[in-house]
Amino acid sequence: MKQHSRGVLAVLFILCLLTSMAILGQDLLVSEMSASMVWHIIIQLQLPLVLTAILVGAGLSVSAATLQVTLHNPLADPGIIGISSGASLMAALVLLTLKLDHINYFYFLPLACFGGALLSTWLIYIVARRLRASTTAVILAGIAISTIAGAIMAWLYILADAQALRNLTFWLMGSLYQTDWWILAVAGPLIVGGIAYQLSQASALNWLYGGSTLAAAAGAEPARLVRNNLIVCALCVGAAVSVAGSIAFVGLLVPHFLRMVIGFDNRLLLPASALCGALVLLLVALFSELVSWMTLPVSMVTATIGGPLLLIALYKGQWRMS
Amino acid sequence: MITLNEIGIDKRLHGISAEIDRGMCCHILGENGAGKSTLLQVCAGLLEPGRGECRINEQPVTAMPAPRLAGFRGFHEQNSTAAFDIPAHSYIQFYAGRKPPHDKLIAALDIGRLLARPVSQLSGGEKQRVNLVRCIAQVWEAVEKGQAVLCLDEPLQGLDVRHQQSLLLFLRELCQLGNTVIMSCHDINISARFADTTLLLKNGRCLASGPVHQTFSIDLLETCFGIKFVITNNQNALQIHPQWPSA
């Protein structure tokens, strides 16, 4: 069982490596450009693209896996507790009301989204704390916040002009091309730090499977664990969403898929989620690079491929009860 | 030894004092909502009492570092469920420090056939047995040395007669090794047979505590449960019959 899981981790890692190399290397094959030009493209465009895909995919998947266990709800994903809706609302406000041109909002948009994600998490947190931080309360508060954000966005939709709406629609469906080294320099450490913290909590997370009382009996401090996990996931997801827009389904699909393959041990599941999430977005990035005549929104690709995949996995039942 | 000293928690428990010696099996009895589960959580160090304190071997249980406590104190929660389809053996191992449960434990609770199945798909009694194994496996090293304290909230709930028997005999065996068991129980006759010491609770207060022959008097039981009892002594084994109101 252990070996089987290690094998899965190794395979995922190698696939990530190969996909990254394919994305980076594809320009080297086009020999018409000069070497310095190719290097410039790789360093300024392809490398940020690869890093964005890895960071966003890993951050979203690990956070979703953590949230599902923390909130005792297999359906939890960063969307359901309202983190991404705060970011989306801010994106809508910036894109629909400020009427900035592309150059001006290149840095402003991610900053505003990150602020929105933190704001919605903070709201959820105070509501949930008044309700004694029961996991259901967190989810309900998240849904309430999402609903409010959705309502405000609907009002903005009515008032907005067509071009701004198109920009927003594309942002909402996610893109891996909105970053550069400066944005990555801020978001990267946040996401990497968040993932590292979550990995360090993996065995305490295993104790949460039986509920918070049993976690306490096993030697954890569940109240602190749940609070810290919520905050870290919010930071991680907030950073990911600010960088790449809201990307659907990855958080929900990847951990569920992996639980069927390698089981429930978070010490393996979390690293595997990081690798698998990164791999999924790397594949999306590779796919969009190959289909270069049009921009493919990430959510569109992840949903198109991920939805049927999960359905097949569910239909076939538990692939391997580890 | 577990010492309860004037335990009080707002409106749930009031001034409960008792001593449970090492190697004893203590049964807590009382009506629904009398405070049995709350008292067990206090004994397990999971709930800090507003007044008084619980000591294990002279050390206040709330002052012990959680990981140390987790090494020798097992806690079985009523109706605990896992939200995911975790196979029973991984579920148990998460709490037992990566080690599979000892064969003796698997045999005592007869869960060999359940290990590969998801906990969420087991029947009530099967789930209960898996959870009991989870609880005891967590402190198995201490159990083998006879130093464990097991706080079990209604461990017999949902078990059929055969599994009730094997659990009770197994717990008695553990007590003979020096382990201490505190459990809540609704079956007075089982308590009469298996409890070394008892604690009768009524509305969060301790009605009586001590060995069965002191606490299981008609007066005390009738005050505790609010119905009539008949007690017979058959070859030195107490048999307690609740009386039904005549139709």
Query: Count of DSSP E strands of chain A?
Result: 0
Strand order of the largest sheet of chain B: 6-7-8-3-9-10
Q: Span from first to last CA of chain B?
A: 47 Å
User: CATH topology of chain A, what is it called?
Assistant: ABC transporter involved in vitamin B12 uptake, BtuC
Task: Summarize the helix and strand pattern of chain B as letters.
Answer: EEEHEEHEHHHHEHEHEEHHEE
User: How much is the average pLDDT of chain B?
Assistant: 91
Helix vs. strand class of chain B = alpha/beta
Spatial shape of chain A: globular
The CATH architecture category of chain A equals Orthogonal Bundle
Oligomer state equals heterodimer
pLDDT < 50 runs, ≥5 residues of chain A = none
Mean pLDDT of chain A: 84
Strand coverage percent of chain A: under 5%
InterPro entries (chain B): AAA+_ATPase, ABC_transporter-like_ATP-bd, ABC_transporter-like_CS, P-loop_NTPase
Keywords (chain B): ATP-binding, Nucleotide-binding, Translocase, Transport
GO molecular function (chain B): ATP binding
Function (chain B): Part of the ABC transporter complex HmuTUV involved in hemin import. Responsible for energy coupling to the transport system.
List keywords for this structure.
heterodimer; A: 322 residues; mainly alpha; ABC transporter involved in vitamin B12 uptake, BtuC; 79% helix; globular; B: 247 residues; alpha/beta; Rossmann fold; six-stranded mixed β-sheet; four-stranded antiparallel β-sheet; 10 helices; 12 strands
Explain what the structure shows.
The complex is a heterodimer of chains A (322) and B (247). Chain A has a single domain (57-315), classed as ABC transporter involved in vitamin B12 uptake, BtuC (Orthogonal Bundle), CATH 1.10.3470.10. In chain A, 79% of the residues lie in helices and 0% in strands. Chain A has 13 helices and no strands. In chain A, helix 4 runs antiparallel to helix 5 and helix 11 (250-262) packs across helix 12 (266-290). Chain A starts with a helix and ends in a 7-residue tail after the last helix. The mean pLDDT of chain A is 84. Chain B is of the alpha/beta class. Chain B has one domain (2-242): 3-Layer(aba) Sandwich (Rossmann fold). Chain B is 35% helix and 27% strand. Chain B is built from 10 helices and 12 strands. Chain B has helices at residues 36-43, 66-72, 88-95, 103-109, 124-138, 140-145, 161-176, 188-194, 212-215, 218-225; strands spanning 2-9, 13-20, 25-30, 51-56, 59-60, 73-76, 149-152, 180-184, 197-202, 205-210, 229-234, 237-242. A 6-stranded mixed beta sheet of chain B has the order 6-7-8-3-9-10, sandwiched between helices. The mean pLDDT of chain B is 91. At the A-B interface, helix 8 and helix 9 of A face helix 2, strand 6, helix 3 and helix 5 of B.
